[in-house]
Amino acid sequence: MMGERHSESEPVATAAITRERHSTLSAILVSMAEAVRIPISPDARLPTRRTLDERLFVRWPGALAPLARAVNRLPPRSRLRRALLRRDVRAVFAAWNRKDLEAVVARVHPQIVYHPRADEPDPSPHVGRDAYEQLVYGFVDSFSRVTPTT
Higher model confidence: residue 66 or residue 32? Predict the structure, then answer.
């Protein structure tokens, strides 16, 4: 109603919510500050055929999720984590270059939401692995070969 006075506890509750948001944002920024760059040599030797793990992940995509969770729980500066991530990126480059898009898409979360840049042909979000797969098949026509750069 007009002219109704709010209780004195309302500003305190708002301040508590603001502090909670601030601490959450601070935690996110701190975790981002711990990000680690992993150099990948442009002359890295890429496999020309599917590796054993790629064959397994394509056949049983659910097998990748527990492994990915375990790797993501490792500290960002862990040598094991960096080596596995480097290997994963190389595997995606290799799969793309040999046009093995099934192996590329197998590494994507089933509930992916891909938000393209505004200047892409279809700037609407692509939801789910199937939508992402269609997007990847469209990209391969435009970008036939990818190479890591430093």
Answer: 66
Q: Among residues 135, 112, 133, 109, which one has the least CA distance to residue 123?
A: 135
pLDDT at 92 over 50: yes
CATH code for position 51: 3.10.450
pTM: 0.64
C-alpha 86/C-alpha 90 separation (Å) is 6
* Cβ-based neighbour number of residue 103 at 10 Å: 21
Q: Distance of CA 14 to CAs 6, 18, 147, Å?
A: 12, 6, 50
User: Residue 50: which residues within 8 A CB-CB, separation 6 or more?
Assistant: 58, 95, 100, 103
Over the stretch 5-57, which tens digit does the pLDDT of each residue have? 555 545 554 555 556 666 666 666 665 555 667 777 777 778 889 989 899 98
Enclosing H/E stretch for 87 = helix 79-97
Amino acid (1-letter code) at residue 106:
A
Q: How many domains does the chain have?
A: 1
